[in-house]
Amino acid sequence: MSWVSAITAVSQWIFLYPATFLIYYAYRILQLLATPLVTLGQFALRCTLLPFNLVLKFEALLTFVSAAVFTGISLGLLLYYTSSFTVEILNQSLGLTYPLPRQPQAHRAGVVKGPKRNVLERRYSPLDEYLASSSRLNRKDGLLSATILEEEESSQDSNGGHYD
């Protein structure tokens, strides 16, 4: 048996050591050739992740701004709907729902008219009321009734009559 173990030990030295030696140096040569490609890949990855790193530096600021935007939008919508609901309730309780006058519609051939709305279905709007009243003034009395006319004064009356 000792001859068998001696032959296997010698054969390992003869065959396995040079194979291991060649595999190790082939690996080192491939590593040397692949190093520029790995470095280039790492550089591309860093450049790709640069915006995320920049965002991470401003994480606290972005969290604050996004929370402020969300809070502002939600409270603004809540305030808008609450105030419009309150105004609508007050207008209805005080009887301030005015029907708006009908606006003349252009009659064109081939235009399909939508269903006519009831005058009571229209919502109250101060702007529409103002426009309706100003158009009534212009139709009834003309433009001159709303114009302020100034009196012309003579040169003696404006100086108190003491100018000689």
Task: Give the topology, please.
Blueprint (H helix, E strand, L loop, with lengths): L1 H56 L1 H36 L31 H15 L14 H4 L6
Textual characterization of the structure:
This protein is mostly helical and 164 residues long. It has a domain at 1-96. 68% of the residues lie in helices and 0% in strands. It contains 4 helices and no strands. It has helices at residues 2-57, 59-94, 126-140, 155-158. The longest helix has 56 residues, at 2-57. The chain crosses the membrane at residues 6-25, 60-81.
Can I get a quick summary?
The protein is mainly α and 164 residues long. The chain has helices at 2-57, 59-94, 126-140, 155-158.
Largest sheet: none
Number of helices: 4
Q: Uncertain spans, ≥5 residues at pLDDT below 50? A: none
In angstroms, what is the radius of gyration? 46 Å
Beta-strand fraction estimate: under 5%
Shape type: rod-shaped
> What is the residue-averaged pLDDT?
76
Structural class per helix/strand content?
Answer: mainly alpha
Order of helices and strands: HHHH
The total strand number stands at 0
Helix content: 55-70%
The CA-CA distance between the termini, in Å, is 154 Å
Keywords: Membrane, Transmembrane, Transmembrane helix
